[in-house]
Batch of 4 targets.
Target 1
Amino acid sequence: MRARGTGSEEDVLERIRRAFGGLRLRTGRDGLRSKASSRFLSLGMGDDAALVSTAPGYEIVLTCDWFLAGTHFLQDNHPADAVGWKCLARAVSDIAAMGALPRCFLLSVALPRELAGAWLDDFLTGLRRAARKFGCSLAGGDTTERREVLINVTVAGEVRRGREVRRSGARPGDLIYVSGCLGEAELGLRLLRERKRGFSRRDVRLRKHLYPGPRLGLGRWLSEKGVVSAMMDLSDGLSSDLRRLCDASRVGAVIQSELLPTVSVTKLESNRGVDPLQLALHGGDDYELLFTVRKNKAKRLPRLVDGVAITAVGEVTRTREVMIADGNGRSGVLESRGWDPFRKSK
C-alpha cells in the first residue's frame, strides 16, 4: 500500500502492516499451504504494486466484492472483527465456487477518522484471522478517509487448468445439489437486529451470519474429482442464484421444497411468522455452494465432503423456467426474491 497525504493515513497503514507483518499461513484439511501462497505472492506490501506468479498448468482466478456500512453490515450491530472476517469471506466464496484456492488479496478501505483506532484494530484482527484460515496473504490496497465505512476486497486465486468450474455447464437431467443448511445466515441477521444488549459469540445461531465459512474444501474436491458440471456460491439466496446458474447454462430447473436443508426455528419464532422454507429460498449470505452433477456421476458423491453435508434438491430441465414443487405434486414458478441492491423497497 502506498501512503498518500497526511501522517494520519500513515498511521492507518502502519496498523495494517503490523497486523499482517507476521502472518504465517497454516496447512489445513483443504490443502491450503503457506509455501504455495508465498510462491504465488512474489512481492507484497511496501512497493507501488504487488507481484504474483503461478505455476505452469494453473490459471489465475480474480474476483472482487464491496462491503458497505448500512448495506452489507450495520455498524451499531456488527462487531468490527466480524466485519473484517466477512469482507474477506464473501470474496473468497467466489473463489471456492470456481473450484479454486485463494492466494492473496487487495484491501481498499475508507473510514472516518474516529474509527481509525480501536475499531480499525478489531477489524484487522478479524481480517487477519480470516486470511490465516483461508490461506490468503494481504498483497496491498489503498486507504482514504470518508464519513461512512466502504470496503472493497479483491482476491487472486489459482486453479489447475481445465479444472475450473463455471456456471454454464449444467445440462437437462443433471441433479441439483446444495451444501450445508440454507437460511441460517438470514435467521442470524434477524436475531441480531432484535438484540438490545449485543450478542454472545457462543450463540451458534449468529455465527454463520457473522463469520461465514467459504466452502473451499468442498469446491476444490468437486473440481479435482471432475463430478460437477456447473457451480456457483449462494450469496444472494437460492431463488435468485439458481436462476443465474440456469440463465448461464440456458436451462431450467425444478426444486423439491421438501428436500431443502432448512434451518430449525423455535416455536416463538414460528409464531412470529419466521418460515424456514422462505429463509432457505430467499435468504442471502449463506455462502454455501450450488452445483449440478450428471446422474451417472451422482453415486460418486458422499454425504459429507470436508465435513460439509451435500443434499440433492432438484433437477435441471429443458424448459427455461425455474420451478418449485412440493411433496403433494403442486408446482409453480420460483420467483427471484433474494438480495438485490437495486430492487425498490415495497
Target 2
Amino acid sequence: MTLLELLDIDLPIIQAPMAGVSTPELAAAASNAGALGSLGFGATDAAGARRMIAAFRERSRRSLNANVFCHEPARADRAVETAWLELLRPHFARYGATPPRELKEIYRSFVADDAMLAALLAEKPRVVSFHFGLPAAERIKALREANIVLLASATNLAEARAAENAGVHAIVAQGYEAGGHRGVVDPDAADDCLGTVALTRILVKELRVPVIAAGGIMDGAGIAAALHLGAQAAQLGTAFIGCPESSADAGFRRALAGDSARHTVMTRAISGRPARCLQNRFTALGTGLPARQIPSYPIAYDAGKALNAAAKAAGEPGYGAQWAGQGAPLARAIPAAELVRVLAEECSLSRGGER
C-alpha cells in the first residue's frame, strides 16, 4: 500500500499542523482539495480538540491529521522563571504593562494527557502525528488498534529509527529550514541541523517506512524535488499561513509579506524550545541569551504570550510567535483550496499521474 492509499488522500501534499495557526476551515479546505489537512492540538486540551475535529467534520469527510506534542513535561525552576520575568519587565513597561507574578505550564504534553488520548480514540481521525518525540508504547498500541495511521517527526536518523521501531507508519523528515518548533526530542542535546534534502535522502535510504519531507517547501517545484529524493509526500506549513482560512493575525500577515520573511531566526526565547520565527522584536530580545536563562517549554511560553498580548494591545505586533520557515518569501496569500490546486499543477502530479 502506498502512503497516499494509507492516508486516503489524492495528492502527495500535507498541510502542516501548525498549532495556533491551523484552523478547521484551513484543514477542511486542504483535505477537500485532495491534500491531507491537519490540526495542531499542542496548544489545546481534549475538549478543544473534540470541538476542532467536529468543526472539521462539518466541512469535510476527508482524512484529517491530528497532531500532538510529546515533549517531556516541564521542569519548573522558580529562580530561572523569576529572573526571566525581570528580564522581560522593561519590555512589558514599554507598553504600559507588568509581567505576570508567576509562570505556569500552560500546555499539557500528550505523554501525560489521558483525556487527549481518550478523545482521539473516540473521534478516530484518520491520522495522528507526534512532535517532540513519542508517547509510551501502550498509547501507540491503542491508537494503532483503533486503525489510526501514525506519523512522527524526526530531525535525525536516531529519532527516525526510534519512531519506526515504535510502530509509526511514516516519518516526517523535518529539515532545519522548517518553520515553527524544531522537532528535536531533547532540545538541550547537540543538533546536527540537517537540512531537508540531506535528511530526507538519509531517511529514505535507511528506513523501511515511508518518508515525508518537510522544511522550506513552498511550491510545486519543491514538492517534485522532495519526491525525486524518494519522499512519498511533502509537508508544507509556511505556504499555508497566508491563506485567508488560517488564524494568523494581521501583524503576522504583514510581516510574512514584508522584509521580515527574508530573515528567519531559530530562537528559544518565545516558548522555551528552539523554533524558527520571522525576525522580530522578540527574536532580537533573545539573541545571544544562553538556554539556561530561559524557562522550560511551555512555561516560557506563558511569559511570551503575555508580552505579545500587552504589545499587541498597544499596536505593536512584533512580539508574536510568527513561526515561519526559510521559504517564507515564497508565501502566497490565496485560499487554501486554490493553493493546493496550484501546487498540484506546478508539481504536475496526482494519484493517477507520475510517481
Target 3
Amino acid sequence: MTPTLLRALGIETPIIQAPMAGVSTPAMAAAVSNAGALGSLGLGATNAEGARRMIRQTRALTAKPFNVNLFTHAPARRDPLRERSWLTWLTPQFEALGAAPPASIEEIYTSFRVDEAMLAMLIEERPAVVSLHFGLPPAPAIAALRQAGIVLLASATSVHEGQLIADAGIDAIIAQGAEAGGHRGVFDPEAPDAELGTLALTRLLVRDSSLPVIAAGGIMDGAGIAAVLALGAQAAQLGTAFVASTESAIDEGYRRALLQGTGETVFTSTISGRKARSLRNRFTALDADPHRPAAPDYPIAYDAGKSLHAAGKARGEFGFGAQWAGQAAGLARALPAGELVRELKAELETALSNLVVPQRPRQRG
C-alpha cells in the first residue's frame, strides 16, 4: 500500500530532495521529480518574480509535482551599532584579501511571514507542494495556500515545534535532526536547542503526532532512507546528497571542499548570523575568536558574509563560502540528480529487504 504522504505528494518513491536555496536549480528539481522522487526549489533567497521564473523554468522541464520552500524567520531587527561592530571585526579578513568591507549591510531576504507578493504569486502559480523553514507564516497565509490545493510541509527540530505545525493545519512534518546541513529550522533562534538527532526526533514525532513525518539530516544513501522508514517516517529528505550533483549551482571551491575535503562539519552562526551546519573552513574558524562581537540579526549578517565570500573568490580563496553540509558529507557522490535518485532507489530496495519494520508506538497517557 502506498503511504498516505506519497499519495498526497504525487510521488512514487519516499525521497525528497531538500530545497537548498543557492544550491538547487530548476534543472535539479525537475530531474529528481522526473526520476519519481520529489524535487525542490529554495525560494527563500529571491523575490516573488524571481521565484515565479524558477517555478516556470521547472515546469518547462517536468510535468511532475515539485516542492518550493520559503523562509519564515522573524524579520530582522536593525541595530546600527551591532552592524558597525560586526563589519569592524570582519575588516581584517577583507583587508587580507585586498578588499574593503561594505559600507553597510542590509536585510537581504524578506521573510515569508510578511511577503504578501510571494503569497500572491504562490496562489497564482499553485505549485504542488510548499514547504516552510524557520517557523510558520500567519494563519491566513496557511489557509490561503490550503484553499489553493497546495500540500504544505514544515520543518520541526523538536516535538514542541511538531505540535505547533500540527495545530496550524500543515499536512506533514519534516523532522530536521541536528545532523542536517544548512540552517537549523528552529522557530526561535534565541531559545535553547536540544539538538535532537534525526533518529530520535523522527521516532518521537512518529509517536506523538498524527501527521506524516519526513526524516531529514545525515541521510545520504538507501540504507539511511531505510533506517528512517523503519522508525515510522513516510519519506526521507536528502540535501547534502544532492549538493555535488551535475545540476547544482555550487561553485568549484564548494565542490572540492565537499568531495575532496575531510567531510568534517561544525555548527556556525558567523557566516549568516543564524545557527547552521557547514563544512569546516576559514569562515567557521572565526567562531573561535574570543573578540567576536554579537552578530547582527539574520539575514543582515549574511550580507556581510556574502561580501566576504565574494572578495575571497575574486582571489581564488573559497574558504569564506557558506559550504553547508550535513554530518555524513563524506558519503557525497558527484552524480546527475536523476541518476542519484535511481541509485538511492536501488539501495533502498536492498536495504528494506534486510529490515524488519517495527509497529507504530502506542500513545502515552
Target 4
Amino acid sequence: MRKFHTFTIRNDRQFIAFTGVSEQIFETLLAEFTRCLHSARRQKYQKNRKIRQRRPGGGRRGILATAELKLFFILFYLKNYPTFDVLGGMFDLSASKAKQNIKKLLPILKQVEKNLHVLPHRHFHAPANNPKAIPEKEHKIQNIIIDATERPHHRPQHARKQKNYYSGKKHAHTLKNTIISDGDNGIIAVGPTAPGRRHDYALLKTELDPDQAELSSVDVSVDLGYQGIRDRYPNFHRINIPHKKPKKSKSSNPTLTPEQKKENRAISRVRVGIEHLIGDLKVFQILANKFRNHSISMADQVVLAIAGLANLKNDYVVQ
C-alpha cells in the first residue's frame, strides 16, 4: 500500500491505472527525478541569486512538497488527462497552479528520460560504418519500421486552422507524429508534431534526409501510405512495402497473386511490432483523448515524454 496526498494505492495493478507505469519503474524514475529536480532548483537559484530576498527553501511549502509527489502528479496527469480544474481539485490546487506545475515538471521528466537513455531522438540518423569493424560484422544491417500515429485535437475556431488540422483519413481534427522503431520493442525517433492534414509520407520527406550514405546499412518496413519511398530513398539497403491491389480500370483481374499475398503477410508480421508500440503510447489518455491544450509545443513535449516512458517500460535503451 502506498499513499500520495489523498490517494491510497493498494497494489501494482492500481498503481499502473493511476500512473501508467509499475511501481518498480516509478522507483527508477524517482531516483533520477530527484536529482534533476535539485539540479533545476540550483540553476534557478544561480540565475536569480542577485534579486532574491530569501534563502533557498524559505517561504511557504507547496502542496506538492516532495519529489515523489511531484512525479506522481505529472504521471497521473499524462495517464488520466483530467482538466486542470479537476486536477487541481484532486491535489488541493487552483486550476492555474495545476497548469503551472505541469509546465514546470514536464521538461524535468524529459530530462530524466534523457539521463536514463530512453528518450527517443527527434530525427533518425543511420549508424555510421565503423572503419575498424571486424570484417564479418562490418556490413551488419539495421532493421527499422516507420509509421505515423494520429491523436484527436480540439476543433480550432479559425477556418484556416480547421482546414489545416482536419485529417481526411480520420474524418476529424488531429495531430500527427512519425514514429520510427527498430522492431525490438523500442522507439528510436519521434518526429515533430504536425497538423493532421499532412500526409504520412509528406511528413517523412521533411524529417529524413535521403542523401545519408549510411542508409545503405538499413532495411526499412512501411505501409501503403508511403508509396513512392523507393524513388526518393534509393540509398536504403532494402525497402519492404506491401503490394497494392490493382485498380479495376487497369486490370481485368484486380487481385493479388498468392506470392504477393504471402509477401504482404510477411511484411505485416514485421510491422505489427510498431503497432504494439503505438498502443503503448495510447495507454496514456492524453494521447488517446481529444487534446484540449492550445500549445503545439506542449503537444510535442507530451508525445516525446510518453515515448520515453514506453521505452523504459520495454527496457529499451536508445543508442
